[in-house]
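Teaching assistant's notes for section 4

Start the section by putting this record on the projector. Ask students to predict, before seeing the second block, whether Phosphatidylinositol 4-phosphate 5-kinase 5-like will look compact or extended. Collect guesses on the board.
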Amino acid sequence: MEGMRVIGLMGSMMGMGWRAGQGGADTGDNTGWVCVMDSGCISSIMEIAMPGSGSAGRAMGVECQTCSDGSCYVGEFMCGVKHGLGYYHFRSDEISNGDEYSGEYFGDKIHGFGVYHFANGHCYVGSWHEGRRQGFGTYTFRNGEMRSGEWDCGVLKIPLLPSDPAAQRAVQAARKAAENAVLLARVDEQVNKAVAAANRAAIAARVAAVKAIQNQMDAKFYYTNM
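Reveal the predicted structure now:
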């Protein structure tokens, strides 16, 4: 992280994070990283847009959220809701279907371009509007049958050949958005590994400090009773 400037530092730096409180690092390009500590361990690391970056100072970043039903979202958010690129995996059991979506979000809803893989083997690649298929896209059944064209509120209104330029442009844009969303998920996985390593180092340091204090107390007690 060359060229980074530490900001908002509370406590002392140790490893990748801080011993207590919160801290951050300004990368100099209107983005930065915020590290939050909880009981001496790193609880989260988030990339944010710094104030004055064009986002009016609103917190933005990449985060992994696990829902109460076991579903998981990894991706960008703004003001606490899914916004930007993201990957969502619905829990797969007797209640949920195990579908997967990767692509664009807007205001906590699937919106823009993206790829939706259904657990039954079907797949839709194309444009979305507030959680519904809207605009151009291609729906492929698990048997290979394809339906392309312009969609409205989840229903195919104007059928087109999959080779139609409008359908192809939408498919390409959706695949690109999906690829970028998956890359974000992989980055989050690497960050989680770094957080786990930093937490292990922090715990080891605390244990060593406690042992050192205990040894000092034992030595003092020994010499006092000689």
